[in-house]
TrEMBL record:
One of its GO terms (molecular function) is transmembrane transporter activity. This is Putative permease of the major facilitator superfamily. InterPro entries: MFS, MFS_dom, MFS_trans_sf. SUPFAM superfamilies: MFS general substrate transporter. It comes from the Bacteria. Residues 14-227 form the Major facilitator superfamily (MFS) profile domain. The chain crosses the membrane at residues 12-32, 52-69, 81-99, 105-129, 141-163, 169-187. The keyword Transmembrane applies. Keywords: Cell membrane, Membrane, Transmembrane, Transmembrane helix. Gene3D superfamilies: MFS general substrate transporter like domains. It comes from Klebsiella pneumoniae subsp. ozaenae.
Length: 227
């Protein structure tokens, strides 16, 4: 089955699930920030070592956007979302079990890459939305994504202070696994619109950069905002 859109009734429920998936996945890259003092004390980390945890998580997210998101044009987005959700849940669990800095840093990098599931969900919502409802449906998913960013630090700080940082990551693993199971049940398969190889997909991004001035302006603006 390769649908292009759903009925309004079905789409509303599925878009809500996608919004939750986007929120839970993107939250994974921010949980560590208020937990760093607890992690540092537990693992005997230096200030520099603690600082590398969120840095590598964000770096992994950037690498995932650059090297993994183009796969959405070549493969079924449902499969990509489900694979990333399973990997993200596993990595969050592994993070809760780590006992040394080196493994923590590797897992943090991979968590960032798997958390790009959120960026696979956004175009999936646009594809599934009924005609004329794309803006509203994508806005709903983006709301879930932004709430994940905003609430992640508060939730992890409270849970970490009460139960410990490892419990926070275990709870995050469970939440991602559960939403992944729900998406497995409700998401339809997506049509594949490109037959380009992976190297060709990567090369096509340079062509898009050259062809669309609006893309260059938006990308440059976001980069300057980050600085």
């Amino acid at each position: 089955m390769t649908p292009t859109s759903l009925s309004t009734r079905d789409a509303g429920w599925i878009i809500f699930i996608l919004a939750l998936g986007a929120g839970f996945s993107v939250a994974s890259i921010y949980y560590a920030q208020p937990l760093l003092p607890l992690m540092g004390a537990n693992l005997h980390l230096t200030v520099e070592g603690m600082g590398l945890v969120p840095t590598l998580t964000q770096a992994g997210y950037a690498l995932g956007i650059l090297f993994l998101l183009p796969l959405g044009d070549r493969h079924d987005r449902r499969r990509l979302i489900l694979v990333k959700s399973a990997l993200l849940a596993l990595l969050l669990l592994l993070c809760s079990l780590t006992g040394q800095l080196s493994s923590l840093l590797v897992v943090s990098l991979l968590i960032g890459m798997a958390a790009t599931m959120a960026q696979d969900i956004v175009p999936a919502a646009a594809i599934l939305a009924p005609a004329g409802k794309q803006g509203k449906m994508v806005g709903t998913v983006m709301t879930g994504l932004l709430l994940g960013i905003l609430l992640s630090r508060t939730v992890s700080g409270v849970v970490g202070a009460v139960f410990g940082w490892r419990v926070m990551y275990q709870a995050a693993a469970v939440s991602v696994a559960l939403i992944g199971l729900v998406m497995w049940r409700v998401l339809p398969r997506f049509a594949v619109h490109s037959t380009l190889s992976y190297p060709q997909l990567m090369a096509s991004m340079a062509h898009l950069w050259q062809r669309y001035p609006a893309l260059r302006r938006a990308s440059s603006g976001r980069a300057l905002h980050r600085l």
